[in-house]
Write a structure and sequence with these properties.
The structure holds 2 protein chains of 2 kinds.
Chain A: E1 23-24, H1 49-58, E2 64-65, E3 97-98, E4 110-112, H2 116-122, H3 129-135, E5 149-152, E6 158-161, H4 164-173, E7 189-190, E8 193-194, E9 207-209, E10 215-217, E11 220-227, E12 233-241, E13 249-251, E14 261-266, E15 280-287, E16 296-307, E17 327-336, H5 346-350, E18 353-354, E19 357-364, E20 370-377, E21 379-382, E22 387-390, E23 393-394, E24 399-405, E25 411-418
Parallel strand pairs in A: 1-10
Antiparallel strand pairs in A: 2-20, 3-7, 4-5, 5-6, 8-25, 9-11, 10-11, 11-14, 12-13, 12-15, 16-17, 17-24, 18-23, 19-20, 19-25, 21-22, 21-24
Chain B: E1 3-7, H1 13-20, E2 37-40, H2 41-57, H3 65-79, H4 142-146, H5 150-165, H6 167-177, H7 185-193, E3 194-195, E4 200-206, E5 216-222, E6 227-233, E7 260-265, E8 268-273, H8 275-278, E9 284-289, E10 304-306, E11 310-316, E12 319-323
Helix pairs in contact in B: 1-2, 2-3, 2-5, 3-5, 3-7, 5-6
Classes of the chains: A mainly beta, B alpha+beta.
């Protein structure tokens, strides 16, 4: 396969972080620290994985289509994707994210808890300030009262001290709580994505395949590519099998954000032997062009249901064929959202029209291997009567996707944006 | 004792005074018949605070504090009160219907088991707006979700932006984000309790002045380290009404959490049941990242673990002390 065009930063043609052999689906035990391991969410992985693969492709209804085999791609003739936006100095140089804390007034500031307004912002009960202060040992008649100042740390704790500096120091000290603590995380959410985050990005400007994500089933290879760059967006990401004629490849239809993964599945392998990551190649373009069509917020509601078809009060016609017996259904609302990480792009997002809003869902087994990939049409949602309709996506409207989770899937992740 | 009243005031001391002046009617009664929905005084004041704060951040033509507060207060009428005008929902309301039969809810049960320490339960939907998996409030702990000013601010921003985007968007946000609001029920209630002609919000204020419905502030610390504010979430102290039946969840409801401490440190939401207050034979902690929902928690063996050196500071009659055994 020929080298793909690069804009300004060369992407490594293929870089596997480790060797390995592509997994054959089988029943597996508890997770073992792999990418999506540790999830063990809802299902026992007792059924044959082939059933899960079938379910992933059959149970996703009218709003989804089985992913077609990518057309043969001439990697030498591609032009840079347009339109594109460039971040400015005020923007974070990373993926598009949205954070409710980004709008919080007076965050990361010491408050005088004897000031009513400040106390309320810091989290005290505006209807019980006297009681709250008493509980906290604050005596507002004393300038140097213990705990008079509160420092609202971005981690969520309101640390207290006699002076603002004391409160700041207390906030720094709270981390040493003597129990196991995970790495710091924030309430930021990557736009255009829902699910488990990628592993820590090594900040290498490349697009790689995650070895543990690979699976081979019935002549279809599935897995995740991973943009390990901390700042650059990847477009025209194409995964192909080495030594196979052109056409046996998969072009990722969405821009892959910095530090983000994306699913792929390549059909037509026939009875080819199990493969490892060394048998696959990845081509891509990396640039600092920001694809604002990924600026879609998953609002996370109404959420997931489990039960029989009779139990679902409001299926919106997003799934044409409901399975017999109990099944799990996931539905969520979506909105085009201004990225708080990129304030300079807010106006562009508000004027945005995504002509082909699409969601791609990957289903995983307990070890993080991709069991199936589905393409879902994002539909506009009319809340008055719950009806949905195909439409472009734009700011200020509400959209919805829904799908059935295959019985053998231990988890899933979803990518949303303008499909190219 | 409660009084019907027409509220027409800007947020601030006036509103607070209104809430204190029980029995006082502000302004003339409306010309047409109005159904007065009951709201605790604290929920009302906290909601109006949140509405005012959201408008101060950003607004559009025609949006007022009363109007936005009316939108917010219309939601619990259906989400919690089932349309009743006399049910003054407590901001401390905890969801009771995320049952065991749905395997996705297993991690809400103590140690992911059905039968032990049942009331060390993570009720996922909290407060007037039953904040659960909604992205805009996912990072908030139980106490923050109960707070009509903190959790309410997230709701206020959402409805503010919906209103400013147009009627269809506002309706979609009502109907889409709160299932009980579907078929425009919350939209209709909003229009019933708010009159645009005179910017008036009609509700009946009931007793209970806490904005968070009875959650209490405490000081917590690990061992002898620095202290921070934590919150005693004791449903026995609730102001306003909430479903307290079948607290062990032996019937169709889920267990109702027995008193626990709610707080966030290191970007982890926690609920801590101290043995001195829970009556259990050990301390139990549920930990959920602020970026996760409780059903997906992957911390500490699905979010549950035992043992803590957490100490709680309490004061009574001027005496204060640290205790390991319970708030």
């Amino acid at each position: 396969m020929a080298e793909g065009n690069r804009e300004d930063v060369p992407a490594s043609r293929f870089a596997a972080t480790q060797g390995g052999t592509m997994k054959q689906h089988r029943h597996r035990g508890r997770p073992s620290g792999t990418f999506f391991g540790g999830i063990a969410r809802r299902f026992q992985a007792g059924l044959l994985a082939v059933a899960a693969v079938l379910a992933a492709t059959i149970l996703v209804g009218v709003a989804s289509v089985e992913l077609a085999q990518a057309e043969p791609t001439d990697m030498t003739a591609q032009e840079p994707v347009a339109p594109a936006s460039l971040p400015d100095a005020a923007d974070a140089h990373g993926p598009l994210t949205w954070s409710p804390l980004g709008f919080a007034p007076m965050a990361d500031k010491a408050y005088d808890l004897c000031d009513d307004d400040a106390a309320v912002i810091a989290g005290l009960d505006g209807g019980a300030l006297t009681e709250d202060r008493a509980s906290l040992g604050i005596d507002c008649t004393r300038a140097a009262s213990p705990n008079r100042f509160g420092y609202l740390a971005s981690s969520g704790a309101l640390a207290l001290g006699t002076t603002p500096d004391d409160a700041r120091a207390a906030a720094a000290d709270i981390g040493g709580d003597g129990i196991e603590k995970p790495a710091e995380e924030t309430a930021q959410r990557m736009l255009g994505f829902f699910g488990r985050g990628a592993p820590d990005a090594p900040d290498v400007d490349s697009v790689q395949i995650i070895p543990d994500s690979l699976s081979l089933e019935d002549g279809v290879v599935r897995g995740l590519v991973y943009n390990t760059s901390a700042e650059l967006f990847a477009t025209d990401v194409t995964v192909s099998v080495k030594g196979i004629p052109a056409g046996v490849s998969w072009r990722v239809p969405l821009t892959v954000q910095p530090g983000e993964t994306a699913p792929f599945q390549i059909r037509g392998l026939g009875d080819i032997r199990p493969l490892g990551v060394d048998d696959l190649a990845v081509d891509s373009r990396l640039s600092d062009n920001v694809d604002v069509e990924r600026s879609v917020l998953v609002t996370g509601s109404p959420g997931a249901w489990y039960g029989t078809a009779h139990d679902f009060p409001g299926l919106k016609g997003l799934v044409a064929e409901l399975p017999q017996g109990e099944f799990e259904y996931f539905e969520t609302l979506l909105e085009v959202a201004e990225p708080t990480s990129h304030p300079s792009l807010a106006a562009e997002v508000r004027a945005l029209v995504i002509e082909k809003p699409t969601a791609y869902v990957a289903f995983f087994d307990e070890e993080g291997s991709v069991l199936g990939v589905a393409e879902l049409e994002v539909r506009k949602y009319d809340g008055r009567d719950g009806t949905v309709e195909a439409a472009n996506a734009s700011f200020g409207e509400t959209y919805v996707v829904g799908f059935i989770i295959p019985n053998d899937a231990a988890d899933f992740a979803m990518w949303i944006g303008g499909s190219r | 004792m409660s009084k019907r009243r027409r509220i027409r005031s800007s947020f601030g001391l006036v509103a607070l005074l209104c809430s204190l002046l029980a029995g006082t009617t502000v302004g003339a009664p409306p010309a047409e018949a109005v159904t007065y929905y009951h709201v605790t005084t604290g929920a009302y004041n906290g909601t109006r605070y949140a509405a005012s704060a959201a408008i101060n951040e950003s607004t559009c033509s025609g949006l007022t504090t009363n109007k936005l507060a009316a939108m917010m207060l219309a939601i619990p009428v259906w989400e919690i009160a089932g349309g009743s005008s006399t049910y003054d929902a407590s901001p401390m309301v905890l969801s009771r219907w995320d049952g065991w039969s749905n395997s996705a809810n297993h991690s809400l049960y103590s140690h992911t088991e059905y039968s032990h320490y049942k009331r060390a339960h993570w009720n996922p939907g909290v407060g007037l707006w039953q904040l659960d998996t909604w992205s805009a409030s996912l990072d908030l702990n139980h106490a923050q979700r109960a707070s009509t000013s903190t959790g309410g601010l997230r709701v206020a921003r959402y409805l503010r932006d919906g209103y400013c985007a147009g009627t269809s968007t506002l309706k979609a946000r009502f109907n889409g984000n709160w299932y009980a609001c579907r078929t425009d029920k919350c939209w209709n209630t909003y229009n019933a309790i708010y009159h645009d002609s005179n910017d008036s919000l009609y509700v009946t204020l009931t007793s209970g002045t806490d904005w968070d419905g009875g959650v209490q502030s405490r000081l917590c610390r690990w061992g002898t380290g620095s202290s921070w504010t934590c919150y005693l979430y004791d449903v026995q102290l609730h102001q306003g009404q909430m479903d307290m039946s079948d607290p062990n969840g032996d019937g169709s409801r889920t267990p109702l959490a027995i008193q626990f401490l709610s707080f966030t440190t290191s970007s982890i939401k926690r609920a801590v049941w101290l043995r001195g207050s829970s009556g259990y034979d050990k301390e139990i902690i549920k930990a959920v990242r602020t970026s996760e929902g409780a059903r997906q928690s992957s911390l500490y063996d699905n979010g549950w673990y035992d043992w803590t050196t957490l100490q709680v500071h309490d004061c009574l009659g001027g005496d204060c002390w640290w205790s390991t055994w319970g708030p």
